[in-house]
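REQUEST FORM: STRUCTURE PREDICTION
Request ID: SP-0412
Submitted by: Lab K.M.
Chain count: 1
Length (residues): 373
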Amino acid sequence: MNKQYSCIIFCNESDVNEESVAEVPITWLDETNTICKWPPSPALVSLYINRYKTPMDNWISYNVKVTATFATLEEARNFNKGESNVSCSGRRLVKSPDIYSPDEFLEPRKVKRPTLPPNIDHSNIRPLVQSYNEDSPENYPDKVYTVLQGPNRECIESEDDISEASGYNSEPISYPSMESGPHVASVSAPADISKETRPHVASVRAPDIPKETAESCLNDRIINLLLDIKLEIGTLTNKLTEQGLLNVESDPILETLPLKNLEDFRSLEGKVNTDPILKKKLYKTYESIGGNGSRDFVIRCLKRSFTNEMAELCSWTGQKDNYKVADSPVLKLLYMAVKKTTGVSEKDFEICVKDWLRHAKQRKERMLKKNNE
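STATUS: Completed
RESULT:
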């Protein structure tokens, strides 16, 4: 049996900025070479392609475009080798995502704005800053003012009127001499009046005080309110910092990402195991990266963590004297962040990491070629 393979491009992808390519048996294509049958399980795609599996009824149909046909799978893969970036589920992206930029993923934290202080009641200040008018005691130094508010709410201006209105003697309110400076008049009620029969003594306008003094009192009250707000913000900031939820100071280790050698990677693993604050910061960093689906999420986090030179020295199981990352606390932390957001399974996460590490050398060579051009 002649096992030929065709190189195809998937059409109508959800992401218009990327095209996916693959090498499939020609038996997966229809007579017009525009429809391709595709296994529903991503984990079995590579196996079915290598074994030249015959399509089944439950396979999914995709619109494709055939670019070339070859006699062997190796020739078809060599044809697409220049365009492959990340292999996952048998497909490859023609256009890889842009190299990680820190400003692209780290969004500013939403900080709750503090509520403004309540409107200040000026009623207790206005009587002190009123200017003298024609009724001021300054114009009538010999006249004594006593104001009572009783049942009939009369304004009484003499001691005789007080006796007629209330039936008792009241000590008048007298203004002190203005030469000694501004004062607030004191109010004294007769000692022989019981609490039940004692009339309410209304407030009496005090002599004027300098405008600068009143403004100083108002400014002091505003300053005290602002100091209270600042103190509350400082308390909340300290609590968030202790819990590792607020990155007030950037951690020096996180600033070295992506890692360039195994020594830095081992150092980061040791810090994650011993420093809970750094562990939370790294988790929050992965969680804020995001992506279009679980595969894109994992790839973006891996690019944020490792350079191609570093990834070339690692593998999932540590074969061929590579550094084993299957049990790495950094990869476990990355998996927790992706699973919380996308619900990815452990198997799919493993496949994605394996493919990304396996193609590190190709990505590095392609990057060098692009820079030389």
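NOTES: DSSP finds 14 helices and eight strands in the chain.
Reviewed by: T.R.
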